[in-house]
Structure formats: C-alpha cells, structure tokens
Amino acid sequence: MSTPLPSIAILGTGSMGGAILQGLRRPEVAVGAVRVTTRSEASAAALRAEGVDARAAEHEADANRWAVRDARLVLLGVKPAQIVGLLEEIADALHPEALVLSVAAGIPTAAMQAVVPNAVVRAMPNTPALVGRGVTGISGGSRASAAHLALADDLFRTVGTVIELPEDQIDALSTISGSGPAYVFLLVEEFTRAAEAMGFDDGVARLMVQQTFLGATALLEASGDDPEELRRRVTSPKGTTERAVAVLQQAELAALFTRAAEAALARARELATGA
C-alpha cells in the first residue's frame, strides 16, 4: 500500500476479525497501532504471544474501551446480536473522527448510527482474506463520506478485492462471496468422497481433488475466459466428461444454488430483526 493505514482497533477476532488481523500483519502492509480484543483470556494470551497488543473482555471490563481509545478505524468483529450492545459500551470512548466498520451480517448502518455519532460503514469480507484473496463488499451509512469509503477500501484491499455496493445489496453479497467459500469446501468434500468410493485412499483422493480445484481456478483466473467456455474445452463430444456433466445438470444445480443463496439471505434478514 502507498498510504499507511491509521491506528486500528479490532473488537472480536473470530473468523472475520481474525482474517483482517492476519491481513494487517502481512509485511507489505503499513499500519499504525493495532489493538484487539477477544472474549477469552486464553485467546488474548495466544495473540500476545504472536506480538499482537490484545486484551480479553472476560479478564478486563474496559478492554473494548481501551482498544478504541485514539483509534481512527474501529472494526466490529463480534456476532450480529452483540453489535448494538458493544457500540453502547464504547460510544463515549470513540474518537470523534473514528470510522466504525462492521462485518456483522444483517445489522444495518441505521441501527448502528442510532447508538454512536460516528460515521459507519458496513463490510462483508470472506475468509480467503486470511491469504490475501478475500472479496469484501462495503457500503456507507448516511454519515459516511467518500473519504470514509476510501479508507474502508484501503483497509480491505490489504486482504483482497473490494466491491462498493448500495447497502440494500450487502446481505445478498454475503450469500455469494461471504458464504461462497463454504460452498466450495463442500464441493471439495463431496468430490473427495466420490474419489474414495472409487477405491483411492484418503491421501490420494484429497491430493487429486484439491489440486484439481486449485488448478481449475488458477486456469480460470489466468485465462480470462468465461467458465462456460473453459468447461466446453474440457467436455469432448460423447466423452466421459460430457456424460458426467449431464448427470450433474440433471440435479438442476442452478436452481439448487439459487435456493441456497435465498436461504442465506432470509437468515441475514432474520438477524437484522434479532431473531
């Protein structure tokens, strides 16, 4: 990055908060002070052992307030049901110019702005941020300026690609890029089981399937071609792949993936209501 990031507080280092923290620790990323909080002292101690300035909320009642003091970026990495309570806890400790970033599904910026006077940006990263290949959707609340969005963009570009969207599309994005890695991992699981059922031992099955997925996605990225075209090149007329693809298409995968995404979106909307 050409412009260093300002001081950052990460409240909650679960899947998302932890992924962003790992991205910030990459050697090419320039960032000011980073303070983080966790729920348990054990996890905070583990982070401190790695050189992270971390405190546990269960051990220190003011840990979250300590973390946000003087921070210009405050990332909320807790579960959706905890967001409003956390904001109430830190509201009067926030720097007036701090940008609040939430990675919680389903909690709108309006609900957060009702608790704190700061600018708020919603973000939905995914776990490949751990290896710098994340996809993050961002959307600003009514107080967020172009400069705030640029700052959020700078933060999440440290861990991958950033897409700016209207807020009413953030939950839908979460069903694709947010949940998407789980869909891919599920496909790898099931394809590996299919290989084992054909007589390959566990190690060989895993190697074949994982390297096939990695190779195929690398080819997709490197070629710039449409996946449909790449599939056509693999599928020889009247060949084995054509027969296999026909079986998969009989399962109506397009409708299946649509139903899965719609189920995830319905749950995001439930989270917004506290369900």
Automatic annotation (TrEMBL):
Residues 167-271 form the Pyrroline-5-carboxylate reductase dimerisation domain. Its main location: cytoplasm. It is found in: Cytoplasm. The keyword Isomerase does not apply. InterPro entries: 6-PGluconate_DH-like_C_sf, NAD(P)-bd_dom_sf, P5C_Rdtase_cat_N, P5CR-like_CS, P5CR_dimer, Pyrroline-COOH_reductase. It is an enzyme of class 1 (oxidoreductase). Catalyzes the reduction of 1-pyrroline-5-carboxylate (PCA) to L-proline. It comes from Microcella daejeonensis. NADP(+) binds at L11, G12, T13, G14, S15, M16, T38. This is Pyrroline-5-carboxylate reductase. Pathway: Amino-acid biosynthesis; L-proline biosynthesis; L-proline from L-glutamate 5-semialdehyde: step 1/1. HAMAP family: P5C_reductase (MF_01925). GO terms for biological process: L-proline biosynthetic process. It catalyses: L-proline + NADP(+) = (S)-1-pyrroline-5-carboxylate + NADPH + 2 H(+); L-proline + NAD(+) = (S)-1-pyrroline-5-carboxylate + NADH + 2 H(+). GO terms for cellular component: cytoplasm. Residues 8-106 form the Pyrroline-5-carboxylate reductase catalytic N-terminal domain. The lineage of its organism: Bacteria, Bacillati, Actinomycetota, Actinomycetes, Micrococcales. Keywords: Amino-acid biosynthesis, Cytoplasm, NADP, Oxidoreductase, Proline biosynthesis. NADPH binds at N64. One of its GO terms (molecular function) is pyrroline-5-carboxylate reductase activity. It comes from the Bacteria. PROSITE patterns: P5CR (PS00521). Its EC number is 1.5.1.2. Belongs to the pyrroline-5-carboxylate reductase family.
